[in-house]
Design a protein that fits this description.
With 155 residues, this protein is mainly alpha-helical. It has one domain. Helix content is 79%, strand content 0%. The chain has four helices and no strands. The N terminus is likely disordered.
C-alpha cells in the first residue's frame, strides 16, 4: 500500500485541489481589491488637488463653467469616498491577502512535512482541517464586518 505522505499526493488530490483553488481565489480577490482601492484613491487625490488649482484661475469667457467643474470635483470625491466606505476595498484587500498568505504557509508546511504535519497521524486530514479553519475564520470575520457596517448604518 502506498504511503499517503505529501510527496505521494496525486495531482488530482481533492484536498490539494481545494487548497490551490482557495489560494488562487483569495490572491485574485486581494489583487482586485487593491487595484480598485488604489484607483479610487488616486482619482480622489487628483480631484482634490485640482480644486485649489482651479479656484485660483478665472475664465472670463466661461465664468460659471469653472464653478461647475469645481463643484463636480467635490461631488466626485464625495461619491468615491462613499464607495470606498461602502465596499470596503482596503479592508478586503488586507483580509484576502492575509488569508492567501496563511494558505500559502499551510501549503509549504504540508509539502515540506514540517510544523504540525511532521507529527500528524494523517497529514492530509490535518491539512484539510487547517485549510477549512482558515477559510471559515475569514468568512466569520467578513460576516462580522457586514453586521458591524449594518449596525453603523441604522444608528
Amino acid at each position: 500500500m502506498p504511503d499517503p505522505t505529501p510527496t505521494t499526493a496525486q495531482p488530482d488530490d481533492p484536498i490539494l485541489a481545494r487548497l490551490n483553488d482557495q489560494l488562487t481565489w483569495y490572491s485574485a480577490k486581494s489583487r482586485a481589491a487593491r487595484r480598485t482601492f488604489k484607483r479610487i484613491k488616486i482619482t480622489e487625490i487628483i480631484g482634490a488637488a485640482l480644486i485649489p488649482a482651479l479656484s485660483g484661475h478665472s475664465w472670463p469667457r466661461f465664468p460659471s463653467l469653472l464653478a461647475y467643474i469645481i463643484g463636480a470635483l467635490g461631488v466626485l470625491i464625495t461619491i468615491l469616498e462613499g464607495l470606498l466606505h461602502l465596499n470596503q476595498y482596503q479592508e478586503n484587500w488586507s483580509s484576502y491577502r492575509n488569508t492567501a498568505e496563511s494558505l500559502k504557509h499551510e501549503k509549504f508546511l504540508f509539502l515540506a512535512k514540517a510544523g504540525p504535519y511532521a507529527t500528524a497521524a494523517d497529514p492530509r486530514a490535518a491539512l484539510a482541517e487547517r485549510v477549512e479553519a482558515l477559510i471559515s475564520q475569514e468568512n466569520t470575520q467578513w460576516v462580522a464586518t457586514l453586521q458591524k457596517s449594518a449596525q453603523t448604518k441604522t444608528t
